Amino acid sequence: MKVLLIGSGGREHALAWKLAQSPLLTTLYAAPGNPGIAECATLVPLDIDDHGAVSAFCLENGVTFVVVGPEAPLVAGLADRLRADGIDVFGPSAAAAQLEGSKGFTKDLCAKYAIPTAAYETFSDAALAHAYVDAQDAPIVIKADGLAAGKGVVVAMTLAEAHEAIDWILADNKLGVVHNQGGARVVIEEFMSGEEASFIVVCDGKNVVSLATSQDHKRLQDGDAGPNTGGMGAYSPAPVVTPEMVERTMKEIIEPTIRGMAADGHPFQGVLFAGLMITAKGPELIEYNVRFGDPECQVLMMRLESDLLPILHAASIGRLDKVSAEWRAEPALTVVMASKGYPSSYEKNTPILFLPADGAGSKVFHAGTALKDGKLVATGGRVLNVTAVAPTVAGAQKAAYQALDAVQWENGFCRRDIGWRAVAREKA
Ligand code: AMP
Ligand code: GLY
After folding, report:
1. Distance (Å) from CA 178 to ligand 2 centroid
2. What is the DSSP string of 98-129?
3. How far does the centroid of ligand 2 lie from the alpha carbon of residue 296, in Å?
4. Ligand with an atom nearest the CA of residue 277
5. Is-above-0.90 flag for pTM?
6. Span 210-243, pLDDT tens digits
7. Largest Cα–Cα distance of the chain, in whole Å?
8. Pocket lined around ligand 1, Cβ cut-off 6 Å
9. Which H or E element spans position 376?
10. What is the DSSP letter of 170?
11. 246 three-class SS
């Protein structure tokens, strides 16, 4: 099978690395890819916003299956176009991708199908939003209703912060949100307290295969302090998601979503990634994403024993009932190396002088790198994902940091405590 992978981050490097191991694969193309992905795929310089060009490339080169990594092309309808042209594609339609593209859509679905999530109201009128917040209390959560690359959420610990966030979103667009059609809207949510976990499943519109559990570290600094980021590290499995929590999450959150989406006329096919809050009451939905978590995908691919390609392809053609996913028992852990300054502004094109070779249980995934005049440079905020598997989380943590300490990149930094909760649990 000739496959095209869309994307250029660490998630896509992990997917490419795993897909490339499939005996069913003849050629793996990636667009636009990165230097790490280039080690396991042929890069093609396609403009992924030009859906016609992506489709034409597939038709001309005999590509029969496309795997879409990031959410933006899905929300923009790339999967619809490819499917209309007769190409199998792993990833939801634009209508189904609203689960990530529109928080209001997801909240309405939760209300309709009794899926546990924070209470909320949506506003486009700033005065009404301010009045609503005044009638509630802090902490309270203010979210932009659109794609915001992780920047559209403010967990306001005071009412003053909440009022400021409403103005940022509705008046000034200081968060740089891509608003949905119809203009800026703000979702105001009840604050949920608990431990977060990532619950990732693959769906074919009807059937669901749940993947191994994982947890990421969204905050910038050690001890889970500092601002929210896209994720500074992750590990799998996540001990907080016990078998009982898996069962409850499937029954109370995932299955009603999949049934509801099908009943409402937009069956969901692709990765459904539920950000969970494990509260005193049980699992509650924070948000949905319609793609693999990044960097959760990196640890999942390290642990996946089964061939990834038939799983993704079965999902794309509605045959997920025919496959299963097997996992190594050993935990995996990944540490993100980011450019100094991330998640705010940072210098681009800083040189990466040395990367350690892959070890028996370790692997460096490229997330934000490029080749300039034949030399490797850092181009993104999150740049490298140093990943390891070992018999214990403490062992995986040690192996990942050992590999990381061999990286020669002056402008890079990382957290030093990825996996701390699981390591503490292991010791207890
Ligand atoms: P989101 O982009 O919706 O995943 O939100 C980003 C982060 O904000 C989440 O990972 C949580 O840490 C936090 N968050 C979002 N919604 C809530 C909520 N209702 N209660 C508490 N924390 C939240
Ligand atoms: N690591 C969280 C995300 O991918 O959104």
Report:
1. 18
2. HHHH-HHHHHHHHHHTT--B--EEEES-HHHH
3. 7
4. 1
5. yes
6. 999 999 999 999 999 988 888 999 999 999 999 9
7. 60
8. 118, 141, 153, 155, 189, 191-192, 196, 218, 228, 275, 286-287
9. strand 375-378
10. I
11. helix
